[in-house]
Design goal:
It holds the Pfam family Ub-RnfH. The protein is α+β, with helices and mostly antiparallel strands and 112 residues long. 23% of the residues lie in helices and 27% in strands. The protein has a domain of 74 residues: Phosphatidylinositol 3-kinase Catalytic Subunit, Chain A, domain 1 (Ubiquitin-like (UB roll)). The longest helix is centred in the C-terminal third of the chain and has 12 residues.
Length: 112
Amino acid sequence: MAEDAAASAPLCVEVVFSAQAGQTQEWTLHLPPQACLQDALRAVGLEASACEAGIWGRRAERAQRLRDGDRVELYRPLLVDPKVARRERFARQGARGAGLFSRQRPGGKAGY
């Protein structure tokens, strides 16, 4: 009987979306037990979004069923490849201004 009660209990899920850097929107929803990712997005008005969606940081199909406590996320497309951005940042800062030795003690030996 406890299994039947758990199967009919509403799901509590969190939906998170960041339209732009520094702005995050979060919603806590109570959905029917057989709800899918698309149902959660529809409940907050984001079902038409072309962004990739996922659960707990892993991409997921919009038809995937949700479990209690899931965190549904919408992912913006990357503007710059992170590897390229790191290389460009390093080139701007130079070898002395970045990485492990950027905060070297005054008068200290190189590498310490």
